[in-house]
Amino acid sequence: MKFQIQRDNLLNSLQQIIGAVEKRQTMPALSNVLIKADQNSLSLTATDLEIEFLTQMDMIIDEPGEITVPARKMLDICKSLPVDSQVNFSLKGDKAMIQSGRSRFSLVTLPASDFPSLDEISSNSSFELPQRILKDIIDKTAFAMAQQDVRYYLNGLMLEVGSKVLRAVATDGHRLAFCEKETDCELAEIKQVILPRKGVIELARLLEYTDDKVKIILSSNHLRVELNNLRFTSKLIDGRFPDYNRVIPDDGHSVMTAERETLKQALIRASILSNEKYRGIRLILEDNLVRLQAHNPDQEEADVDLEVNYKGEALEIGFNVNYMIDALNAANSNMVQLTLRDSNSSCLLSYPDLGDCKYVIMPMRL
Fold this sequence. Notes:
The protein is built from seven helices and 25 strands. The protein is an alpha+beta fold. The protein has three domains: 2-114, DNA Polymerase III, Chain A, domain 2; 125-246, DNA Polymerase III, Chain A, domain 2; 248-361, DNA Polymerase III, Chain A, domain 2 (Roll). A hairpin with a 3-residue loop joins strand 11 and strand 12 (175-182).
């Protein structure tokens, strides 16, 4: 096995796939990257058995072959080499030899046969859409995913694909984020899958706000995304996601409208003196005014008044301030709207000029 490659091309490919390499692995081969050199192409593969990355480059290969090498060491070597330098890769016995300029490295290898791969997926349905749509829908919802919840189906992002529409929903049981986008995809029936947390984070890292097309392939157990020369595959969470339509309130009659950034800064100021563990904050609504109150076990208090657009009965309700700030950070809109029913019901946060996003925050006893 022998080939030459530009350092920048190799580094870029390694950076794309390194997210699948865990630092602590039960199988030694999972710490490695699989390098396959065919007659006219070079491919790099990394997996942790939950997600898998494969990147491919067209190039002339001197001697075909396949081997696995330590992924992070290979990445660090590429980072240390000068920009625009040439990398020569070859095998010598059971060692991988990497040479660039006057620098030489030898890495321990494992045979390609030791490298595991995800099960082959049989495509049930597939569609294409611009990268920016998929990235935007993930960025606006992924923050509400649960972390290590015993309700394992909450530790991910639910994607729902129907005719001409793509929806994403995430919830941790205390808040819910919903976003939907119009697409050109034509599916005979609605498909609903749950992408695990790590897969969501890695996918968001890869995507860019461009009109370049990305292909999505859905099967019963996997989701695959193909973009440019990169293929990303993730196992799906086998579970039933909660009915989000029952969670999103539609009976609120008290509506407050405010400037998004002004409200966010007021919440940040008030939260300085909130309880560090529970992060509770009280909203007191009166005519065209919201008062934000917080206190902590040291008997310290914060009181921040903000002029808003509100006509309705006086209302007092408690929230986790972090949940509110996360929802305000999710969209780059000028105005935000809070719709409430009473002190014990969840709040619906939405953006008047963005009809595609809704955020639900459960109330908190203070």
